[in-house]
Amino acid sequence: MTSEQHKALTKQLIALELQLHQPETRRSQTQLNLLLANGFEEIAASGVRFNKAHVLQRLPEEQAPSVEAFDFEIRLLSADLAQVLYKAKLRKAGEMQSKLSLRSSLWQLNSLGWQMVFHQGTAVLPASGPV
Question: Model-level pTM?
Fold first, then answer.
């Protein structure tokens, strides 16, 4: 992969990741279904594990949190599998303070395009060292 191709892929995967943070995407089962692979799994910062069916049911009913994502890193693991690593400050509706987490997503290229197959958010405790 050339450096220009890597830059384009980085831009595309970050845009897809950020799309999942948008309230209009989170409310749409159709958009979520396109962005999440059929075998999708998530391990939330709380330690709870979710599959695609649960996410498609839960997210449209939730009030979307405010998410500030930054420090993105893209790792190409194979020609059709990439890892997106980043930090996020997440503030749920009605809460005054944001919570910091480290996030990791695996995106797989298939006949539908890039789809997320796995996501994990790990809470960062205050004063927990370098992040």
Answer: 0.91
